[in-house]
């Protein structure tokens, strides 16, 4: 194995969820509770990338603190009944890694119980550790807390991990901990995101099969 531990983001890295679940939930909330201009799907991807989900809702969408709490509660209820599909080829990557004795950890802005549900529903091997949105805000991505905890628990060096993520918070987290990073570029074709990732990341994969080939090489 090139890396003992794969540290995976969840949404738009392992499962196709923004276009099929999170964006539709946002549209439904705005239409029902705060009618007005909507972000396009490309804009939603772009602002979620940078400055991030909370500044996007607060500063760009103009939601108050109370409205942000209401939107999160609406999203939680929406996600209960919508399970995203794993990207084709992801199951084989994770199964192969586990069969070789590797570790799979998840660091995500989704809740851990939904992540575990999605893994089970898609026939993916259960992660060894999951750090989700339920963490206190200062400990979530882009904070490197989860990576330090993974390295401590399994006695790993930074170079023994590979973070795979589609967004800037994951990149920032990996950089802060000195951990190798691979950009997952298969969820969208937003130029702003791809340009940043290609310029700043040593590893960039436009298709899941490219990640699989890299890990096997």
Short description:
The chain has 10 helices and 8 strands.
Helicity level: 40-55%
Q: Structural class given helices, strands, pairing?
A: alpha/beta
User: How many independent structural domains?
Assistant: 2
| Number of helices in the DSSP assignment | 10
Rg, alpha carbons: 17 Å
CATH superfamily of the largest domain: HAD superfamily/HAD-like
Q: What oligomeric assembly is this protein in?
A: single chain
Give the SSE string: EEHHHHEHEHEHEHEHEH
Give me the CATH fold name of the largest domain: Rossmann fold
Number of distinct beta strands: 8
Q: Average pLDDT across residues?
A: 95
Name the poorly predicted regions: none
Strand content: 5-15%
Mind summarizing the main beta sheet? 6 strands, parallel
CATH level 1 name of the largest domain:
Alpha Beta
What does this structure look like?
This protein starts with a strand and ends with a helix. It is globular. Strand 4, helix 6 and strand 5 form a beta-alpha-beta unit. It is built from ten helices and eight strands. With 217 residues, it is of the alpha/beta class. The mean pLDDT is 95. The chain folds into two domains: 144 residues, HAD superfamily/HAD-like (Rossmann fold, 3-Layer(aba) Sandwich), CATH 3.40.50.1000; 63 residues.
């Amino acid at each position: 194995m090139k890396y003992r531990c794969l540290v995976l983001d969840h949404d738009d890295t392992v499962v196709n969820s923004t276009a099929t679940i999170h964006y539709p939930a946002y549209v439904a909330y705005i239409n029902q509770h705060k009618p007005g201009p909507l972000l396009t799907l490309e804009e939603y991807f772009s602002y979620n990338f940078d400055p991030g989900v909370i500044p996007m809702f607060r500063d760009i969408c103009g939601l108050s603190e109370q409205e942000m709490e209401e939107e999160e509660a609406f999203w939680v209820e929406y996600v209960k009944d919508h399970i995203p599909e794993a990207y084709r080829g992801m199951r084989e990557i994770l199964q192969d890694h586990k069969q070789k004795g590797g570790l799979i950890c998840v660091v995500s802005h989704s809740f851990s119980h939904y992540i575990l549900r999605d893994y089970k529903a898609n026939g993916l091997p259960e992660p060894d550790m999951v750090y989700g949105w339920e963490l206190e805000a200062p400990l979530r991505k882009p904070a490197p807390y989860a990576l330090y905890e993974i390295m401590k628990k399994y006695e790993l060096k930074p170079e023994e991990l590979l973070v795979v993520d589609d967004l800037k918070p994951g990149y920032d987290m990996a950089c802060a901990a000195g951990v190798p990073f691979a950009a997952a570029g298969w969820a969208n074709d937003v130029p702003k995101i791809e340009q940043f990732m290609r310029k700043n990341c040593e590893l960039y994969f436009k298709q899941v099969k490219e990640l699989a080939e890299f890990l096997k090489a």
